Inverse folding.
């Protein structure tokens, strides 16, 4: 499972997502620019752009802001040139992390990411040391108060691949391109969606059952997410809901 996804549900419940909305919008806009630059400004013929536009709308980004980002990326308006770089590393406890960035200065970004890992008790890893165990999936969490039958029916009919119980929530796996359509179907069925994202899911997980180690892992995760160049962080920790709540 994706530790990052599970932590995202806790942050959402605490309202942290709303407080960080401005930073989130800036990061999504950068993703839109890059997708439009690489595949053109028409979402109907550019699947990566279509996916990130759906992500932007799910985050309640305005249509005007989305259009401006597309125009910057497709060359219709002035914008910066960004390079996509993925860094790999380990947090305390041996937790594997992948860090996706979009940067206009790779030297600055590389130094920043290395400093975060080192300062907070982790370490950078060689390319490929971590990435082999991650694959892209759509992950949706629904409040556990919803009945299994209702979640299964709505999710599978909308094209989801799997529905399982994950602590106090239902976890739904989809193809990356289908995650926002499945989310919409769940919401139309009146089910309480906590979070939905196209993310990287690890084939292995590290159980972190020590609160002190869990706190250190989450400090690395949050420090990386605070960096303006970082777009997404993926991790393979498995921390119980109780410990997440306690250290959050």
């Amino acid at each position: 499972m994706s530790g990052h996804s599970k932590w995202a549900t806790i942050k959402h419940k605490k309202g942290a997502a709303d407080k960080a909305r401005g930073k989130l919008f800036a990061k999504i806009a950068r993703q839109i620019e890059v997708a439009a630059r690489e595949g053109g400004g028409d979402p109907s013929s550019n699947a990566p752009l279509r996916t990130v536009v759906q992500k932007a709308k799910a985050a309640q980004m305005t249509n005007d802001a989305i259009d401006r980002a597309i125009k910057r990326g497709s060359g219709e308006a002035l914008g910066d040139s960004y390079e996509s770089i993925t860094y790999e590393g380990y947090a305390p406890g041996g937790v594997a992390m992948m860090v996706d960035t979009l940067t206009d200065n790779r030297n600055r970004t590389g130094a920043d990411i290395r400093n975060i890992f080192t300062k907070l008790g982790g370490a950078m890893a060689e390319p490929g040391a971590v990435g082999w165990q991650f694959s892209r999936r759509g992950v949706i969490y629904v409040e556990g108060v919803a009945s299994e039958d209702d979640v299964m029916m709505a999710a599978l009919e909308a094209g989801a691949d799997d529905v399982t119980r994950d602590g106090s929530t239902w976890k739904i796996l989809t193809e990356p391109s289908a995650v926002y359509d499945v989310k919409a179907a769940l919401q139309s069925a009146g089910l309480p969606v906590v979070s939905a994202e196209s993310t990287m899911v690890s084939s292995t997980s590290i159980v972190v059952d020590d609160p002190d180690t869990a706190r250190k892992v989450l400090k690395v995760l949050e420090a990386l997410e605070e960096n303006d160049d970082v777009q997404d962080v993926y991790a393979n920790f498995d921390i119980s809901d109780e410990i997440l709540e306690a250290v959050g």
